[in-house]
Amino acid sequence: MKIETWYQHNFESQLEGRYISLKHIKPLLEKYQDIFSISSAGTSELGNDIPKITLGKGSNKILAWSQMHGNETTCTKAIFDFFKFITNNELFKDEISHFLKNNTLVIIPILNPDGAIAYTRENANGIDLNRDAIDLSQKESVVLRNVFNEFQPHLCLNLHDQRTIYGLDNGLPATVSFLSPAADKNRSVNNSRIESMKQIVKINKILQQYIPGQVGRYDDTYNENCVGDSFQKNEVPTILFEAGHYKTDYKRETTRKFIFYSFLSLFDMIPNDKEDIDYEDYFLIPKNKTNYRDLILRDVKLDQSSNHATVVMQYEERLINGAIDFIPVVETVDDIDDIYGHYEPDPAASQFLLNSQKKK
Ligand SMILES: [Zn+2]
User: Fold this and answer.
1) Which of 143, 205, 236, 295 is the most exposed place for a label (fewest CB within 10 A)?
2) Has residue 183 got a pLDDT over 70?
3) CA gyration radius for the chain?
4) Distance, CA 240 to ligand 1 centroid (Å)?
5) In angstroms, what is the span from residue 340 Cα to ligand 1's centroid?
6) Ligand 1 (single-atom ion) residues, CB below 5 Å
7) Is the pLDDT higher at 262 or at 276?
8) How close is the Cα of 69 to the center of ligand 1, in Å?
C-alpha cells in the first residue's frame, strides 16, 4: 500500500479543524497509554497538565513540542497521525522497528494548554512563550527547559503554524516553511545549524513531490529569547516547522498531511536519497515573503465616482462554540501589485461582498 493511500484511510480522524486542546487529545492519550510511555511534564500557569509522550528505546534522542503557541494546532494533528502510523501493523514494519530501536522520541503535543483552550498564541498571562527562552518567567517555559535539560536531546523539533500572509517569490503560498535558527547575531553556520539544515534539505526533497514550489525558508534573524535560537546556541540542532496555507484548506487538514510526510522523511521511514544531501541546498529554499492575503477584490468601484480600487481582506480567526470562524476584515496594503489573494473573486461579485463588510 502506498503511503498516500494509507494516510487517506488511516489519519487520526478524531482530531479535526483548527481548535485542538487537551480535551481533544485526552481520549487518544488514554488509547496509547499501554503502548507509549505517557507522563506529565508539569503544569501550566492555570494548573493544566502538560503531557509528555515517549516512544522508542534508541540512543539518538529527539525532542519535539507543539502548540507552544496555543492556536497553532496543525503539527499536533500530524503528531497523532504519526502515532497511528507507528502503531499500524501492516506498513513499513522494518522502518518502524528500526526507528524505535535507534531513537528515543519525546513529544510534548500541547506545551501551552491554557492558550490552546482560549485559542490564543500567548499563554494565560499573555506571554509569548517563544520570547521567554532567557527569562523563563512562565511555568510552561520552565517545563520545556527542564525536559530539555534532563533528556539532553540530539535534535529538537519546534512545531508551529504560520499565518496565511506568507508566500514565495514564485507567486505560490508558503504551505510549509522551515528554519534552521541562528545561534548568534552573525548567523554563523555552526555544526548544529548544519545538521538541522541537512535535515530540512532532506525533508524538502520529499515535500517537493507533493507541493512543488510551496516550501519556504523562515527568516533567520537571531533572537536569543526564541527557544529555537537558544537551543541552537546550546549546540543542539533545532528545526522550526511552520505549517502554512494550502489552496482553500483553512482547517489545515491537507497541510497536516504534508507535516506528517515531513516526519516520515525526517525519521527515514520513507525512502530518502541520504547520500545526496548537501546542507548548502538549504539556502536554495526560497525565503518566506509576506505577499499573500486571504481575499482580494480587484478593480472594485467603491462609490459613484469612476475610480476603481483594490480591496484587501484578511480573515480574523475567532473561537465560537468550540470551532474557529473566519471573519473577513478589510485592511489596506500599499503595494497591491505584489500581493496575491488566496481567493480573488471577479469584480462583479466583489461589489456585493464589500457592501456587507464595512470597515470599523
Ligand atoms: Zn508559532
Assistant:
1) 205
2) yes
3) 21
4) 9
5) 23
6) 69, 72, 160
7) 262
8) 5
Q: Which helix (H) or strand (E) holds 229?
A: helix 227-233
Distance 35 CA to ligand 1 centre (A): 30
**Start and end residues for every CATH 3.40.630.10 domain found in the chain:** 3-284
Q: What is the DSSP letter of 254?
A: T
CA 354 / ligand 1 centre spacing (Å): 31
Cα–Cα separations (whole angstroms), residue 53 to 44, 65, 104, 169, 348? 17, 10, 10, 39, 53
Q: Note every long-range contact of 331-335, with CB atoms under 8 Å and residues 24 or more positions apart, other chains counting.
A: 331/293, 333/293
**Which of 117, 315, 132 has its CA nearest to residue 229?**
132
Per-residue pLDDT tens for 37-76? 999 999 999 999 999 999 999 999 999 999 999 999 999 9
Do 163 and 252 form a contact (C-beta atoms < 8 A)? no
Query: What's the CA-to-centroid distance between 243 and ligand 1, angstroms?
Result: 9
- Distance from C-alpha of 139 to C-alpha of 132, rounded to nearest angstrom: 10
C-alpha cell of 27?
A: 481520549
5 CA distance to ligand 1 middle (Å): 30
SS3 344: coil
pLDDT in tens, 191-205: 999 999 999 999 999
Close Cβ partners of 70 (under 8 Å, ≥ 6 residues apart): 110, 112, 113, 114, 115, 116, 117, 118, 119, 120, 121, 122, 123
Four-way CATH pick for 3-284: 2.30.29.30, 1.10.760.10, 3.40.630.10, 2.60.40.1080 = 3.40.630.10
User: 58: how many CB neighbours lie within 10 A of its CB?
Assistant: 14
Q: Calculate how far, in angstroms, residue 299's C-alpha sits from the geometric centre of ligand 1.
A: 35
